[in-house]
Amino acid sequence: MSSGSALPHQVESTAKAHQEFSDIGKMKTETDGSFKRKASTFRSFITQDGEFTPEKGRYHLYVSYACPWATRTLIVRVLKGLEDFISVSVVSPRMGSDGWPFANADPFPASDTDPLNNAEHVKDIYFKAEPNFQGRFTVPVLWDKKTHTIVNNESSEIIRMLNTEFNHLLPKDKAELDLYPESLRKEIDDLNDWVYDTVNNGVYKSGFASSQQAYETAVVSVFSSLDRLEKILTGKDYLIGDRLTEADVRLFVTIIRFDPVYVGHFKCNLRTIRDGYPAIHLWMRKLYWNFPAFKDTCNFEHIKTHYYWSHPMINPHRIVPKGPEPNILPL
Ligand SMILES: N[C@@H](CCC(=O)N[C@@H](CS)C(=O)NCC(=O)O)C(=O)O
Fold first, then answer.
1. Which residue has the higher pLDDT, 42 or 28?
2. Is residue 204 annotated as part of the catalytic site, yes or no?
3. How far, in Å, CA of 75 to CA of 81, rounded?
4. Atom 14 in ligand 1: residue holding the nearest Cα
5. Which of 85, 219, 256, 292 is deepest in the core (most CB within 10 A)?
6. Residue 11: what pLDDT?
């Protein structure tokens, strides 16, 4: 990160803040100032004929309400009616020098302790599963209570497992809800590809860029994709076909954070969703207000506190802005 035009006291406070930031070494930008996200590392699947079989009560999700990737898994867990099948622990949103803390290390409202491993931080769980683990200590984590290990820490794969692998144990209506239907897969995959690169991860590329050029490239591509999504969603309730799919879930978690966080903290400020994108705005509010799976898994306090508190290289004084008011408008 360049200290460019910073005054001496700013450099010092930024340097100190860096030491407190959990993974700044692993989060650092490329030589051109661009941000590249590292791949997830635990990639097993729950399957009926494999090591990790679908069973009621066998698995646990470690998540943060702040994290868009983790929230994908929370939304699909509720949509599929898996609340009694898969338990959940929510970490504190204040990700500090040891990474994500549980409530015993940082008792932030609506965060939990870890009932399985009594961990203080998410990193303890990674070391329990793999004592030599060298990657990032990310959420979500799908944990197997039977073999005491991490099954998978990649949200896009976890939501696919939740969509299909428990269906034989679920009531008919929940089993029949298919967020990745065969006939729409190509369309969903194609949309996911560019939405991931330029929107879900695009906002991070904008926010974590450490050169003007890298920032401008990223932010322009965020907004060209929003323009494209606005056209797709005009007159429609869902992105693909006439039904809710995982594409909606994956986009929603970024759009709901956009005005409260990404406009300010990640400098994605060419337009806001509420003032610049009427179709995306309506789509987002319909999902939020009409589906408990979207509304009940959304905690704006955790979302705003996490970003503004946990990236002191961007926001050294950790001040959390009060607006926008409200975080989401009514329908
Ligand atoms: N590819 C992962 C990304 C997960 C991820 O990056 N999570 C962030 C929170 S939003 C995290 O836990 N970061 C902690 C760190 O990097 O130390 C997924 O989609 O599951």
1. 42
2. yes
3. 10
4. 138
5. 256
6. 31
CATH 1.10.260.30 applies to domain 185-307: no
**Angle at which helices 185-195 and 246-257 cross, to 10°:** 20
Q: What does the alpha-carbon distance between residue 256 and residue 259 come to, in Å, rounded to a whole number?
A: 7
Give, in degrees to the nearest 5, the angle at Cα 102 between 100 and 107.
115
Atom 5 of ligand 1, nearest CA residue: 138
Mean pLDDT of the chain: 92
Among 62, 65, 204, 308, the active-site one is 204
DSSP single-letter state for residue 61: E
Domain boundaries, given as residue ranges, for the chain: 59-176, 185-307
With b meaning 16 or more CB within 10 Å and e meaning fewer, what string describes 215-241?
A: bebbbebbbebbeebbebbeeeebbbe
d(CA 25, CA 23): 5
Q: What is the mean pLDDT of residues 75-83?
A: 98
For ligand 1, which residues put their CB under 6 angstroms from it? 22-23, 40, 67, 69, 99, 136-140, 153-156
Using one digit for the tens of pLDDT, what is the confidence trace for 178-223?
Answer: 999 999 999 999 999 999 999 999 999 999 999 999 999 999 999 9
- 88 contacts: CB under 8 Å, gap ≥ 6: 60, 61, 62, 63, 74, 77, 112
Q: Which CATH superfamily is domain 59-176 in?
A: Glutaredoxin (3.40.30.10)
Which atom in ligand 1 lies closest to the alpha carbon of residue 140?
Answer: 20
- Kindly tell me the burial class for residue 315, based on how many C-beta atoms sit within 10 Å of its own C-beta (0-12, 13-18, 19 or more): middle
d(CA 159, CA 6): 43
- Is 137 assigned a ligand-binding role in the annotation? yes
Return the best residue to mutate from 73, 74, 122, 136 for the ligand 1 pocket (most ligand atoms within 8 A of CB): 136
Residue 283 annotated as lining a ligand binding site = no
The residues facing 289 across adjacent strands are: none
d(CA 39, ligand 1 centre) in Å: 10
Long-range contacts of residues 124-129, Cβ cutoff 8 Å, at least 24 apart: 125/62, 125/150, 126/150, 129/42
Task: Establish whether 67 is a catalytic residue.
Answer: yes
Question: Measured in angstroms, how far is the CA atom of residue 69 from the centroid of ligand 1?
Answer: 7
